[in-house]
Amino acid sequence: MSREAAQTVSALEGVGEDGVMEPKRYDALLLASFGGPEGQEDVIPFLRNVTRGRGIPDERLEEVATHYRANGGVSPINAQNRALKAAVEAELERRGIDLPLYWGNRNWEPYTPDTLEQIVEDGHRRVLAFSTSAYSGYSSCRQYREDYGMALRDRGLEGRLTVDKVRQYFDHPGFVEAFAEGLREGLAEVKAELAERGVTEPRLRLLFCTHSIPMTDADAAGPRLPEGEEHEGGNLYTAQHLAVARSVLERVPEAEGIPHSLVYQSRSGAPHIPWLEPDVNDALQELKGEVDGVVLIPLGFVSDHMEVKWDLDTEATDTCRELGIVSRRTPTPGTHPAFVSGLVDLIEERHQANPGSKPERASAAEGGPWPDVCPAGCCVKVMRDGTCRPTVAAVDSEVGAAQGA
Question: At 297, which helix (H) or strand (E)?
Answer without folding.
Answer: strand 293-297
